[in-house]
Specification:
Mannose-Binding Protein A, Chain A, alpha+beta, six-stranded antiparallel sheet, 543 residues, 26 strands
């Protein structure tokens, strides 16, 4: 492989690597789930729970969390079983270079310190002087004793990070700034945490005192918005909002053809995945924005009336917890009020006070009496939603209250693609009990709210999923090289494709798709573009 191609591959690698953080899409999901449930949701809808490469990513995560929420948010980090030495700036310790003292590391501690030019493993909680590095400015000795985590935070705040050491030259450069006779922190640490999507980067942003070694402290990691995006590990069973990464696995497609609901369903299943499914308010807003701006009527979505009734929560989840009063539910209604610590089914048209929940402040009791549907709208507008109750501890918060609407309701509607999430966004007075209205349309002019209508009516509709008829996307690649250009060598083309494919996978931009070169006449992929600028005959451009 000649020198010019070697430079080309390095540039390609650098291009995709440096753009990975910018290209990774983050999505804040305000549904409360356990870490395993959140992981399953993200893998189904996107790529996985959020992976983080650097402080730029941390700041992006903080900025997408709802401003009023101050609790923890699940990200994709969890405790693994294998311990590895890694660098503070996110690199795995891939360099073969090391300078451990004799008998080190002895597995007694998880952080590395520099002492008389060689490395020792030391307990991360010890207070030591430390070195920082700043890009283009080299190494700086900090004469303040801190534990390893605090030293890392200091370097990230005032410089770039704790230093990485890849060769004897860098080791000797640090020797010139450290104080002899002092153990001095640098960027090497032992790590047993891993990303849900198997991403091999080792950037960490732990809060003070984290990760702790106490038993039962938790194997899953949450991010705190109010603590500058710092991380702490907690029990995986706790229910928090969460952040996914990756492109959404299905997109919405507005089809401006008037069809019955059944014909629209057949069209969507043939060309895409199915009629549109919505999981939450973010999806509801996306549906509205998908419809052509000039259209003001109803459009079909994938919801239709099923045969099985089930009790579900307004926010779109199901729970195994219940505390029905003996003999309840007895068929009095399809909505639930909590009275003196027990649940009763009640007609949804009854006006009652109600309890909302807010991601930042918990349960909020509203004393103004409203119907269940109006209470739901009020909670969604001013807080998060009507309260969902998944434990006795939560029920105890309203045990001594008089009748209050909670978020539980009886539902028989189901999605065309058999999705089991129960988010609903009905307009006022819906769903009614009128016969012959068993399919659901969305109104663009009414904030995207839903109403059920006769399935025989002809409406435009929204599908979800990728267009199966669009099988290829052609991207033109233009490359420059100096000297001899050998880009039509099949082995070189394969190497470039492999490099691009791996970077796309690491960013969640490629799944089952395949990439290949498009060959022109004569079977060649690249053809020479003549550079007609005078004096440039010794250079060629390829595309």
């Amino acid at each position: 492989m000649d020198g010019s191609l070697f430079v080309l591959l390095l540039l390609l690698s650098g291009l995709f690597w440096s753009s990975s953080a910018l290209s990774r899409q983050y999505h804040y999901i305000h549904l409360r789930m356990s870490w395993p449930e959140a992981q399953s949701y993200c893998r189904e809808k996107y790529t996985d729970l959020a992976t983080v490469d650097n402080m730029v990513d941390v700041n992006r995560l903080v900025n997408i969390v709802d401003a009023g929420y101050s609790g923890s948010v699940w990200i994709g980090l969890k405790r693994g079983t294998q311990k590895r030495w890694a660098w503070s700036n996110g690199e795995e310790k891939f360099s073969p270079y090391s300078n451990w003292a004799s008998g080190e590391p002895n597995e007694n501690a998880s952080c590395a310190a520099y002492f008389f030019g060689v490395w020792y493993d030391i307990a991360c909680s010890h207070g030591r002087y430390f070195t920082c590095y700043k890009e283009n400015n080299g190494y700086v000795m900090i004469q303040s004793a801190k534990n390893w985590s605090d030293a890392q935070s200091y370097c990230r705040q005032y410089y770039t990070d704790l230093p990485s050491i890849h060769n004897s030259k860098e080791n000797n450069q640090i020797t010139r700034v450290v104080f002899y006779g002092y153990y001095t922190w640098f960027g090497l640490f032992q790590d047993s945490w891993e990303w849900s999507d198997k991403w091999s980067r080792f950037f960490r942003n732990w809060a003070a005192g984290q990760p702790s070694q106490s038993s039962g402290s938790g194997d899953c990691v949450g991010m705190s918005r109010k603590d500058s995006g710092k991380w702490a590990h907690e029990s995986c069973d706790l229910e928090y909002p969460f952040i996914c990464h990756g492109w959404r696995k299905y997109q919405y497609q507005f089809i401006n053809e008037s069809r019955s609901w059944q014909d629209a369903q057949s069209y969507c299943r043939a060309r895409f995945t199915d009629l549109a499914t919505a999981d939450n308010m973010s999806d509801a807003r996306l549906l509205v924005n998908t419809v052509d701006a000039g259209y003001s009527g109803s459009v079909w979505i994938g919801l239709h009336n099923g045969t099985e009734y089930r009790w579900v929560w307004s926010i779109g989840t199901q729970s195994q917890y219940s505390i029905w009063n003996p003999g309840e539910p007895n068929g009095d209604g399809e909505c639930v009020n909590s009275f003196n610590g027990n649940w009763y089914d009640e007609s949804c048209s009854t006006a009652l006070p109600f309890v909302c929940f807010n991601d930042s402040s918990g349960f909020i009791i509203i004393t103004t009496a409203m119907t269940w549907r109006d209470a739901q709208s009020y909670c969604r507008q001013h807080h998060t939603d009507l309260a969902s109750i998944s434990s006795a501890e939560q029920q105890n918060l309203i045990r001594n209250q008089a009748s209050l609407w909670i978020g539980l309701f009886l539902d028989s509607w189901q999605w065309s693609d058999s999705g089991n999430l129960s988010f609903r966004y009905w307009t006022e007075g819906q769903p009614s009990q009128s016969s012959g209205s068993e399919c659901v349309g969305m109104s663009r002019i009414n904030s995207g709210k839903w109403a059920h209508e006769s399935c025989d009516l002809k409406r435009p509709f929204i599908c979800h999923g990728d267009d199966k008829l669009i099988k290829k996307q052609i991207v033109k690649l233009k490359l420059s090289c100096n000297g001899k250009c050998t880009l039509n060598d099949p082995s070189i083309q394969t190497a470039i494709l492999n490099e691009i494919s791996e970077k796309l996978k690491s960013m969640g931009l490629e799944s089952d798709s395949k990439i290949s070169w498009r060959k022109g006449e004569g079977g060649e992929v690249f053809h020479q573009e003549i550079n007609r600028i005078a004096g440039s005959n010794n250079k060629c451009n390829k595309k």
